[in-house]
Specification:
This protein is an alpha/beta fold. It is 44% helix and 19% strand. Bound molecules: D-malate.
C-alpha cells in the first residue's frame, strides 16, 4: 500500500491508470475505496490518485481539529511528492468541500472540477449543532455512532430496495475508520465556510453530478451550483442516491469520460 508523509501525517493512496491526472477525494465517513468503480473502469483515460484523507482508512489520524484547508494542504503536499503539477479534482460530498478549499488556495494546480453529490453552502446552525452532538456520541460510543447516523441516508431509495446487501457492505467499510478522524472531519465540516462567492470565480471546466434520489445534497443544490459556475455542466443520474458513483457507476463513468475527453 503506497503512502506518503505530508505535514507529519501518513497518507495512504492508490495510483493507477494512464491519462489525465485525477485526484479522487472521498466523502464522510468513507475512504478511498469509494472510487473503486471509477479507478479501474477509467484506467485508459485517467491517471487516478485515490487517497485516504487524514483520519480515514489507512492514513494516520492525529488529534483534531481539522479544517477543509488542512485536507487541502495535505493533498497539495501529496501532489508535490508525486511530482504532479495540475489535476482534475473529483470530490464527493465532503470531498467536494475539500475541493472548494483546494481550488480557493491553489487554482493554478486545478485543470478541472468534478463536484459529485456535494453542496456550496455552509452548515445551517441546526446542522452544525447536530455535528457537535454526534461528536459527543462518537466520544462515548466510537465509530459505530457515526455509521448509524450516516448509513441510512447515503444510498438512494432504489439501491436500498433492490440491493439491501450493499447497505451491509457499506457499513463494514465505514466501520474501519478511527473515531479520532471522524471527530476531526465533523469539526471541519461544521466550521467550513460558505462557498457561494467562489462559484462565479471558478475558471476551469466543471462537471456537477448528482444522484436523482440524493437526500443529503439534493439535485436542486447541484442545479444551483451548475448555474453559478461559468463553465459547468450538470448531470443528474436516475435511480441513484448520495453515493451516485457507486450506485450508477456506468452512467457516472460515462459522464466523467466525456468530461475528461473535452478538457482543453
Ligand atoms: C458526506 O457524504 O461527505 C457527508 O454526508 C457530507 C455532510 O455531512 O455534509
Amino acid at each position: 500500500m503506497p503512502f506518503a508523509t505530508v505535514q507529519g501525517v501518513r497518507l495512504v493512496y492508490d495510483l493507477r491508470g494512464q491519462g489525465v491526472p485525477v485526484l479522487w477525494i472521498h466523502g464522510f465517513p468513507l475512504g478511498r475505496w469509494l472510487w473503486d468503480p471509477q479507478v479501474e473502469a477509467l484506467g485508459d483515460v485517467a491517471r487516478s490518485i485515490a487517497v485516504d484523507l487524514r483520519g480515514f482508512g489507512g492514513s494516520s489520524a492525529p488529534e483534531g481539529p481539522y479544517t477543509m484547508e488542512t485536507y487541502a494542504e495535505d493533498l497539495r503536499g501529496l501532489l508535490d511528492l508525486l511530482g504532479i503539477d495540475r489535476v482534475v479534482l473529483a470530490g464527493l460530498s465532503m470531498g467536494g468541500y475539500v475541493s472548494f478549499a483546494f481550488y480557493a488556495a491553489y487554482p493554478e494546480r486545478v485543470r478541472g472540477l468534478i463536484l459529485a453529490d456535494t453542496r456550496h453552502q455552509a452548515d445551517t446552525p441546526e446542522a452544525r449543532a447536530n455535528r457537535y452532538a454526534l461528536i459527543e456520541r462518537i466520544r462515548q460510543e466510537g465509530t459505530a455512532a457515526a455509521v448509524e447516523a450516516f448509513l441510512p441516508r447515503l444510498l438512494g431509495a432504489t439501491t436500498r430496495r433492490e440491493h439491501p446487501d450493499r447497505v451491509e457492505r457499506l457499513r463494514r467499510k465505514m466501520m474501519t475508520n478511527p473515531a479520532a478522524g471522524l471527530i476531526g472531519a465533523l469539526q471541519a465540516m461544521a466550521e467550513r465556510p460558505d462557498r457561494t462567492e467562489l462559484l462565479p470565480r471558478i475558471q476551469v471546466p466543471t462537471l456537477v453530478i448528482v444522484g436523482e434520489e440524493d437526500e443529503v445534497t439534493p439535485p436542486e443544490v447541484a442545479r444551483q451550483m451548475a448555474e453559478a459556475i461559468p463553465n459547468a455542466r450538470l448531470v443528474v443520474l436516475p435511480s441513484a442516491g448520495h453515493l451516485a458513483n457507486v450506485e450508477a457507476p456506468e452512467a457516472f463513468n460515462e459522464a466523467v469520460r466525456t468530461f475528461l475527453g473535452q478538457l482543453p
